[in-house]
Specification:
Pfam family, one: NHL
Protein name: 6-bladed beta-propeller
Helix content: under 10%
Shape: globular
Strand content: over 45%
Keywords: Repeat
InterPro entries: 6-blade_b-propeller_TolB-like, NHL_repeat
Number of strands: 8
CATH architecture of one domain: Beta Barrel
Number of helices: 0
Length: 88
């Protein structure tokens, strides 16, 4: 089964095509909790199928584990903006 993910940023778009064995919805609402986003700006999938989302207004990167379906996050310690994301 073919699925297409389309991401947009600054009037450009990119498509990621592939074969998906299962389609799940986990999180995706507006907010600052795990699985919630405020102006997501980028998405990536690693070799293990984990999904990474750059959550720009929350100043963090979130990861959706492909096996467990659990969200985790990396963000700058101290809650400030700019700089490194805790050494990531």
């Amino acid at each position: 089964m073919w699925r297409t993910i389309i991401t947009t940023a600054f009037r450009s778009s990119r498509q990621l095509r592939g074969v998906w064995s299962e389609w799940k919805k986990s999180g995706g609402g507006s907010g600052s909790g795990l699985g919630e986003f405020s102006y997501p700006r980028g998405v990536a999938i690693d070799g293990d199928g984990n999904l990474y989302v750059a959550d720009s207004k929350n100043h963090r990167i979130q990861k959706l584990d492909a096996v467990s379906g659990v969200w985790s996050e990396w963000k700058k310690s101290g809650g400030g903006t700019g700089g490194d994301l805790g050494g990531v």
